[in-house]
Write a structure and sequence with these properties.
The chain has helices at 55-60, 80-87, 118-127, 149-155, 174-179, 181-185, 208-214, 246-258, 260-267, 276-294; strands at 4-8, 33-34, 43-46, 64-69, 93-96, 105-107, 134-138, 161-162, 188-192, 218-221, 239-240. The protein is of the alpha/beta class. The chain has two domains: 4-96, no CATH class; 118-276, Glycosyl transferase family 10, C-terminal domain (Rossmann fold, 3-Layer(aba) Sandwich). Strands 2-1-3-4-5-6 form a six-stranded parallel β-sheet, with helices on one face. The protein has a five-stranded parallel β-sheet with strand order 8-7-9-10-11, sandwiched between helices. Strand 9 (188-192), helix 7 and strand 10 form a beta-alpha-beta unit. Helix 4 packs parallel to helix 8 (246-258) and helix 8 (246-258) crosses helix 9 (260-267).
């Protein structure tokens, strides 16, 4: 029986999502498709931006319900109805920035892409000239979880942290807008790339760490990796931040800055593990298998 997928809870914050191939790229049946009339659907994908008038529709829906997790659960006020659906177990599956759990949760992180150049990024790291780079950048719109400003302020005691985003803005964003975040970050040795909140649900990771590593910058990262993420990212090249070690991480950054040999050794480590391509493929295969088995044939 083919999938007829309808989306709800995206219009307010991510209206273009239903018309992308973010999920449909994993369809395995040529008759599977996205529909825009709920009466034609047998699968409902529920986004983080659920509104009050969506709740009766979701509760009355008789088909399969899938939560798409793109925002941290239980952290933002605008996701309160989505969070309620999660907390009350009013769904069949959840997919997205979440850990793999047999039968119920399917990991499909925001960083997933079949075109990631792991080897190219590692090669760039091994050859780029550090003496031509600026020290540190922070590119973000906000810091609701207080994971970015504390380390930025601490590092600012010792260096200029370039902030082209809305958060702590101190320069133009024109270049970022023109060439994109990963390309812009290639100019820097360090990048503050914290997730929105430190303690989120298991498996929560976005594109922030991936963009930093693809740019060759050393991540100053507030977040957690699960066993799949650890097969992709080299933990030894990440400066892990938490609410208690801000000064310690800042001192580690300065230690590297003051010792060129130590900096070279730390920076030249590959950002991505040798198992990265295999691990990324396993994510895609897992999502594809999920959709293949979602609706059994009649």
């Amino acid at each position: 029986m083919p999938i007829r997928m309808f989306h709800i809870g995206f219009e307010y914050g991510n209206p273009q999502f239903p018309r992308t191939n973010m999920l449909s790229q994993f369809f395995t049946n040529s008759d599977d498709k996205i529909v825009f009339d709920i009466r034609e659907s047998n699968v409902m994908v529920i986004g983080s931006f659920v509104q009050p008038n969506d709740m009766p529709i979701i509760m009355d829906y008789k088909g399969t319900k899938i939560l798409y997790v793109g925002e941290p659960i239980g952290k933002f006020g605008f996701t309160r109805f989505f969070d309620e659906i999660f907390a009350r177990n009013m769904y069949d599956y959840t997919i997205g920035s979440i850990a793999n759990k047999p039968g119920k949760w399917i990991k499909y992180p925001i960083y997933y892409s079949t075109t990631i150049g792991f080897k190219e990024a590692n090669a760039f790291i091994s050859t780029t000239r550090l003496e031509k780079k600026k020290l540190c950048t922070l590119i973000s719109r906000h810091d609701h979880g207080n994971t970015r400003l504390p380390i930025m302020k601490e590092l600012s005691k010792y260096m200029h942290v370039v902030c082209p985003g809305k958060l702590a803005n101190n320069c133009s964003s024109e270049e970022v807008d023109r060439i994109g975040t990963p390309e812009y970050m290639k100019q820097f040795i360090f990048n503050i790339c914290s997730e929105n909140f430190g303690e989120c649900h298991p498996g929560y990771i976005t594109e922030k760490l991936m963009n930093c590593c693809l740019a060759g910058a050393i991540p100053i990262y507030f977040g957690n990796l699960d066993e799949i993420d650890e097969r992709i990212f080299n933990k030894d090249r990440i400066l892990f931040l938490n609410e208690h070690n801000v000064e310690e991480v800042a001192k580690r950054v300065m230690q590297l800055c003051l010792n060129s040999e130590m900096m070279q050794q730390f920076y030249r480590q590959p950002a991505f593990k040798e198992t990265a391509e295999e691990a990324l493929k396993s994510i895609g295969d897992g999502v594809k298998t999920f959709f293949k088995d979602l609706i059994p044939p009649i």
